[in-house]
Amino acid sequence: MKKDLLQQAFVFYIACLITVGSSPTAWSQSQVMTTEDITRRSDLVAVGRVRDLHSEWTAERRSIVTRVTVSVNEYLKGNYGQAVTVLVPGGEVDGVGEWYSHTPRFKKDEDVVLFARKQGPAEFHVTGGEGGKVTISQDPGTGVSMIAGGVTLDEFKKRIKATPSK
């Protein structure tokens, strides 16, 4: 009797592992989104340069957040003025660092395409985790603005602008 219960429990355990393990979301914390998906879910898409980073404790001092201010050169969706500030989990305050996987990390003076959604009256959060920040670099041979994967910034902007609204 006891042996039968152990066997049934083992079979149930294996079945649960197979069911959960076969789900793609079980393999990672972040959901991979297409450019079109992330554009639709965002209230703003902006091309600009990281102007300022300011890390601080939350009001309860339970975690650290970083306010990232981006000087906007061009809005591809929405329009929220010459600069936009997004709140990102993690950062460093007084030698204490807190970082989260699948959260974008920004650098001062970095050129980016930023996807963000409005949270409350005056606060924005990056849409889609690390996929909500796309770094822009210059091709050393041609000087053309590029993003990862050998795609020109102009091509990427066309895809974003061609995405129908929700």
Attribute tags:
166 residues; alpha+beta; OB fold (Dihydrolipoamide Acetyltransferase, E2P); five-stranded mixed barrel; three-stranded antiparallel β-sheet; 4 helices; 11 strands
Task: Please write out the topology.
Layout: H1 2-21, H2 24-27, H3 35-41, E1 44-57, E2 64-77, E3 83-89, E4 91-93, E5 96-98, E6 111-118, E7 124-126, E8 133-135, E9 137-138, E10 145-147, E11 151-152, H4 153-161
Parallel strand pairs: 3-7
Antiparallel strand pairs: 1-2, 1-6, 2-3, 4-5, 6-7, 6-8, 9-10, 10-11
Task: Describe it.
This protein is an alpha+beta fold and 166 residues long. It has a single domain, classed as OB fold (Dihydrolipoamide Acetyltransferase, E2P) (Beta Barrel), CATH 2.40.50. Helix content is 24%, strand content 37%. The protein contains four helices and eleven strands; from the N terminus they run H-H-H-E-E-E-E-E-E-E-E-E-E-E-H. Strands 1-2-3-7-6 form a five-stranded mixed beta barrel. The longest helix is centred in the N-terminal third of the chain and has 20 residues. The protein starts with a helix and ends in a 5-residue tail after the last helix. 20% of the residues are buried.
